[in-house]
Amino acid sequence: MLPSGSRMRRGDEFADAVRKGGRSGRPTLVAHFRMRQDVDEPPLVGFVVSRAVGGSVVRNRVKRRLRHLLRDRLDRLPRGSLLVVRANPPAASARSERLAAELDVALDRLLRRREPSTAHTDGRR
């Protein structure tokens, strides 16, 4: 699914993204995004799927679906970034199209926030 080098494995990376990063919430998922300074490594992606989503079979299915969706979107993430996707309970019954659409909206919001503002570049206030 995801390349091995792009999987988040360490707890401090999860904590860094969730506690210090930007957040974009949707009904089925919440995305946390953080840029690491002075790090030129591939983006790292992690998933959090709690028991509130369902039993182990349901949680693993949701994780597989999210990993599959993120694999196609990995090239949108800048090098050195951390992304944690936390599934909400509605993710268990959501269709893949809805998960994909909500993931795209969350990523668009987070990536747009990190871009420098082009407003007021002409000297006006």
TrEMBL record:
EC number, UniProt record: 3.1.26.5
GO cellular component: ribonuclease P complex
Protein name: Ribonuclease P protein component
Keyword annotations of the record: Endonuclease, Hydrolase, Nuclease, RNA-binding, tRNA processing
Biased composition (Basic and acidic residues): 9-19
Higher taxonomy: Bacteria, Bacillati, Actinomycetota, Actinomycetes, Streptosporangiales
Subunit field text: Consists of a catalytic RNA component (M1 or rnpB) and a protein subunit.
Organism whose genome encodes this protein: Planobispora takensis
Similarity comment: Belongs to the RnpA family.
